[in-house]
Automatic annotation (TrEMBL):
It comes from Kluyvera cryocrescens. It comes from the Bacteria. Belongs to the LysR transcriptional regulatory family. Residues 6-168 form the LysR substrate-binding domain. This is D-malate degradation protein R. Pfam families: LysR_substrate (PF03466). SUPFAM superfamilies: Periplasmic binding protein-like II. The gene is dmlR_13. GO terms for molecular function: DNA-binding transcription factor activity; sequence-specific DNA binding. GO terms for biological process: DNA-templated transcription. InterPro entries: LysR-type_TF_proteobact-type (IPR058163), LysR_subst-bd (IPR005119).
Amino acid sequence: MLHDKAVDFISDNIDCAIRVGAEVDPATVTVLLAEVPRCIVAAPELLRRFPAVVDPTSLSALPWIAISTFYQHEVVLTQPESGQTVSIAIASRLSTDSLYVAKNAALAGVGVAVVSSWTVEEELANGTLVELLPQWQTAPLPVHLVYPWARYYPVRLRKFLDLMREVMPQIAGMRQPEKG
């Protein structure tokens, strides 16, 4: 199954789930498998209507597309070289829980969005979207394998976990988790 709703392991008869984003259910075991890098993008037409984006504070003046499951009122950026972190207040023109709606709205010039980098590779290459402040990064999204806590785990679950630890970071758009 592929969906965004919370998993009910018992009623859905599911052994485990792969979840992108923070896992908060204390009744589950959460194993970090990979992470999804993200970037800040906008359409060139939108950017022509606003002052140039020269630093993170410039982003506050732009209209935004919020992905409600990950950010709504602020975006936190980090400069990897210096370790400096900045929190930017944003005003959303559109709020969605869909990565594809956010991407398409950015392409249409509705606003700036933080999206998974893999979803916009082609648009960045052909110039229909521009990456803003590439020297600043938003936190990557964690990819977890989640399963209910139990006293005993079947061999098939343990083997699946081992396989996912090996395979997930190699899937296009994902990377090995950075050590924190």
